[in-house]
Amino acid sequence: MTSAFARIDISSALRKLNGAEQIIREEAIKMSAEVAKFGEDEMKSNILASGTPFSQSARQAGINQGPGRYRTGKMYNAVKSRVEAGGNRVRAAFGWIGEVEDYFLYQEDGFNNKFFAVYGDGGGLKVQNGEPVLKRADFPRRTKGMFALRDARLTVEQELPRFTRKYEGIIARRIRAKGK
Question: Where are the domains of the chain?
């Protein structure tokens, strides 16, 4: 029995790919950092855009120091991002990383408010010692959640194909440049 085949030396082609794994890992970490920062910025933007009638009144009264649900900045400034890399896995993480106060989660998901704010005759929020004047409600009122983390996650997932295309191009250019 005879054989008929062709041998092709692919050594030069493989040399062009030498180091591709390291390039892919480096760019995966960079992409994860960019995605995580994008998520952090989106979440912070959502906090600032998620005002309630009370938060608007509190800002006008000088209690809230910023727009939306930015009262003291503690919840806003607790939003962070990071890259988690180990083994063959690289992840982008963002949100309340570190110390999370229950208050943050109440604002995120919404809550039954047992108090209501007291407003003066002119419609302005009554303030005493730098705090709003509150009265116990006869029945709880639902304070709508801001859903800053949830909505930021959804936005990041929608934008992920754009990040992927960007980094596919970067990886391909780096591999081509290395192979020359």
Answer: 16-98+147-179
